[in-house]
């Protein structure tokens, strides 16, 4: 048995030496496979870095208190005039006072999914949308750092929403609906028309916390337009950004302090989001590498099997040629 395998190896080595072109091609294929694995590993690392790089921006601060089930895989079907799932004026005032006492920045806004934003001259029915609608206070949103728009370049969200009946949409929503700055659109819930005054980068809201924004897009409107859109005037989300030197343990403690003050049903902290994103990034990275190594292994087994079949089929021919000298 050992002699047979030694014969296979010697014959394969001789063929590699004699068939230079095929040998070079095989080496190129192996190099391409290794490069693919390295590229996939780099992709996994890049995805992991993107998940943990801007968790404060994704969470709109260090602590987010919310009544909204929007984001991720869940969403709110339509809007209601009922204020049961919104913060009361007293709760908003308590959170704002707490933020001032702890040297933090504060914002309150409404997040609503399953909204529609369509061009005013649309005559056909497009694909279903679940656009995330953010009704914000342009003076305080977001509490972390200003959002710079892609168009007009260098303009902030605050400046773009200064006019009446203005709306800022995401880049992916603008691309899917063929919208640009200056176009007129309709928003579900009202017969009023709005003018697109800016296009925000998709990554401003898209992420693991809001998958619908990643796929369908989102839009910003002033919270003063809540009555026009027939949604509750009171916000359903409060975000607070603490000083950057605040430890993660303190952030969790502050979040638990805010729950009874605001009577919020749930909260999300930047440290909690960071931990979850790190786990997700590690899983995604490992999965990508395993897939690449699996593909390389399958390709290697296929090459070895082909070589063994070729040598096995020519065994009698090779034996006859060696006998004849």
Radius of gyration (CA) equals: 29 Å
- What best-fitting shape do the alpha-carbon axes yield? elongated
Poorly predicted regions are: 70-82
| Mean pLDDT reading | 83
Strand pairing plus helix content: what structural class?
Answer: alpha+beta
* Most strands sheet: 10 strands, mixed
State the helical fraction: 40-55%
Strand order of the largest sheet: 3-6-7-5-8-4-2-9-1-10
* Order of SSEs: HHHEHEEEHEHEEHEEHEHH
Give the terminus-to-terminus CA distance: 25 Å
Number of strands: 10
Number of domains: 2
Tell me what portion of residues adopts beta-strand conformation: 15-25%
Work out the helix count. Answer: 10
Description:
The chain is 47% helix and 17% strand. Mean pLDDT is 83; it is low at 70-82. The chain has 325 residues and is an alpha+beta fold. A ten-stranded mixed sheet has the order 3-6-7-5-8-4-2-9-1-10.
Task: List its salient traits.
47% helix; 2 domains; 10 strands; single chain
Summarize the structure.
The protein is of the alpha+beta class and 325 residues long. It has helices at 2-18, 20-53, 55-58, 89-101, 157-160, 171-177, 211-215, 248-262, 270-313, 315-324; strands at 63-66, 105-115, 117-119, 131-136, 166-170, 184-187, 193-200, 218-222, 237-241, 266-269. Strands 3-6-7-5-8-4-2-9-1-10 form a ten-stranded mixed sheet.
Helix-strand layout with pairing:
Layout: H1 2-18, H2 20-53, H3 55-58, E1 63-66, H4 89-101, E2 105-115, E3 117-119, E4 131-136, H5 157-160, E5 166-170, H6 171-177, E6 184-187, E7 193-200, H7 211-215, E8 218-222, E9 237-241, H8 248-262, E10 266-269, H9 270-313, H10 315-324
Parallel strand pairs: 4-8, 5-7
Antiparallel strand pairs: 1-9, 1-10, 2-4, 2-9, 3-6, 5-8, 6-7
């Amino acid at each position: 048995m050992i002699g047979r395998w030694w014969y296979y190896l010697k014959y394969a080595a001789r063929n590699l030496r004699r068939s230079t072109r095929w040998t070079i091609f095989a080496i190129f294929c192996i190099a391409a496979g290794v490069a693919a694995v390295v590229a996939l590993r780099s992709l996994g690392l890049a995805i992991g870095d993107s998940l943990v790089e801007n968790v404060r921006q994704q969470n709109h601060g260090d602590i987010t208190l919310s009544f909204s089930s929007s984001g991720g895989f869940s969403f709110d079907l339509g809007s209601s005039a009922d204020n049961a799932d919104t913060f009361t004026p007293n709760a908003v005032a308590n959170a704002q006072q707490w933020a001032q006492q702890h040297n933090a920045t504060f914002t309150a806004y409404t997040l609503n999914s399953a909204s529609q934003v369509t061009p005013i001259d649309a005559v056909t029915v497009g694909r279903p949308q679940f656009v995330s609608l953010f009704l914000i206070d342009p003076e305080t949103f977001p509490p972390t750092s200003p959002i710079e728009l892609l168009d007009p370049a260098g303009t902030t969200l605050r400046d773009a929403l200064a006019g009446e009946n203005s709306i800022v949409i995401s880049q992916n929503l603008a691309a899917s609906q063929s919208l640009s700055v200056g176009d007129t659109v309709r928003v579900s819930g009202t017969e009023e028309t709005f003018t697109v005054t800016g296009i925000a980068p998709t990554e401003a809201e898209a992420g693991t916390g809001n998958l619908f924004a990643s796929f369908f897009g989102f839009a910003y409107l002033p919270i003063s337009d809540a009555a026009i859109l027939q949604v509750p005037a009171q916000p359903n989300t409060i975000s607070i950004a603490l000083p950057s030197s605040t430890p993660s343990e303190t952030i969790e403690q502050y979040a638990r302090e805010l729950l009874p003050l605001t009577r919020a049903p749930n909260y999300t902290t930047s440290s909690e989001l960071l931990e979850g994103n790190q786990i997700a990034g590690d899983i995604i990275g490992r999965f990508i590498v395993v897939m690449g190594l699996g593909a390389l292994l399958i390709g290697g087994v296929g090459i070895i099997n082909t070589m063994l079949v070729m040598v096995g089929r020519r065994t009698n021919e090779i034996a006859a040629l060696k006998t004849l000298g």
